[in-house]
Amino acid sequence: MPTVIPKLDKNFIENLPRLSLQEIAFEVSRTLLSDDIPEADLRTIVNEAINFDAPLVPLNDGTFVLELFHGPSLAFKDFGARFMSRIMGYLSSGKEQELQVLVATSGDTGGAVALGFLGVPNTRVTILFPKGKVSEIQELQLCSNGQNIEAVEINGTFDDCQALVKLAFNDGSLTDKLRLTSANSINIARLIPQTFYYFYAYSQALAKGYKEIAFSVPSGNFGNIAAGLLAREMGLPVKKFLAATNENDVVPRFMETGEYAPAPAVPTISNAMDVGNPSNWVRIMQLFKGRSNEFTELFFSQSGTDADTLEAIAEIYEKNGYLACPHTALAWRALKSIPNEEGLAKVFLATAHPCKFPSVYQGELKEKIQIPEAVKGLYEKTFSKISLGNDYAEFRDFLLGNL
Ligand SMILES: *Cc1c(COP(=O)(O)O)cnc(C)c1O
């Protein structure tokens, strides 16, 4: 976390509606990073990373949905992964050895990371995923990249994949030979690009005549909402933040009881939020240290069950003709706790496209899922993966090119 969070110019906030998403992204990252990366290079990085839209779509029921799934992996993690990969590639240029990125994925993060690093010079990515435990679209996204991306199917669980990656990082005889790094880490280069769309949402709300804004964010590791809070620290006037969780409700319970009690994650249909001990929570606590009154007036949290999620999906569709992914549906549901107010835009974040979770929908809703062109194209690409057991010696040989 930066020790001092720089404030953006007041003029910048007032002028937001005149700026594009890319211009906003450049200005925000310049303010945070200009000591580290020259402006011209930063502009190139931003323009390459943020090359898709984040529209604020009005619904019949008076709410707005901020669609964050128009990037290549159809989830908001594209913002973090595409920006971070280019920053890492940039900082690696001129080094003798390419940067070797290792990622273990249960599905979603891996796709965003793979597509984020695709074609980035000086980098090579190895993605480990558990055999038979990712959805069809997710597997296609992991295995149809080629170039500098290699997908490795492990005959085991996600925990086995993660264990292999950790063993590699701790293996001195391997790290002597390869420049290894992780993309799972909660580094600031993944948080910064997630602030961009909060500014852009406010910009679009201002353009529609709204004066104030409240955000409801589907939350698992709380990185997304931490980025929103960071944007507010930089000067974005946000009235309220709502963190919507599934039954993994350590934060809602903390807000109610004051006791932070991490627990093992329980599986739900909004599985990208199945987190029992959110890694960004310390960051949020740090940010509001000594300002707990301000925090309790700003920040609210609500959990929902799988039954609540399905009910919300059906209700959003009935009222608005809008199909939401299970994570997004919980955020919409939480927004009901905020009363309507003149001039207040109530915004929920759509973190993924519903086509990524086909097993959640039944009947009419299932038929309404529109598969984006980019996904259809996946079926025509060359599919390639390497299959390994969950044995470290074998994985090590593979990394060293001995297999
Ligand atoms: C990762 C993810 C989330 C949770 O985001 P955090 O930053 O971990 O809170 C929510 N929805 C989807 C679709 C995700 O992929």
Describe it:
Helix content is 44%, strand content 15%. The protein is built from 18 helices and eleven strands. It has helices spanning 10-14, 21-33, 39-49, 77-92, 108-117, 136-143, 158-169, 172-175, 188-207, 223-233, 250-257, 281-287, 292-298, 306-320, 326-335, 363-368, 373-378, 392-399; strands at residues 56-58, 64-67, 99-104, 123-130, 149-154, 179-182, 212-218, 240-245, 299-303, 344-350, 386-388. The strands form two sheets. A six-stranded mixed sheet has the order 1-2-10-7-8-9. It starts with 9 loop residues before the first helix and ends with a helix. It binds pyridoxal-5'-phosphate (PLP).
Task: Describe the structure in brief.
The chain has 403 residues and is of the alpha/beta class. It is built from 18 helices and 11 strands. The structure holds pyridoxal-5'-phosphate.
Report low-confidence residues grouped into runs of 5 or more.
Answer: none
Report the sheet-strand fraction. 5-15%
Largest sheet: 6 strands, mixed
Q: Numbering strands along the chain, what is their spatial order in the largest sheet?
A: 1-2-10-7-8-9
Q: Based on helices, strands and strand pairing, what is the structural class?
A: alpha/beta
Question: What is the residue-mean pLDDT, rounded to a whole number?
Answer: 92
Q: Overall 3D geometry?
A: globular
Q: Could you tell me the radius of gyration in angstroms?
A: 21 Å
Count the strands? 11
Percentage of residues assigned to helices:
40-55%
Spatial separation of the terminal alpha carbons: 40 Å
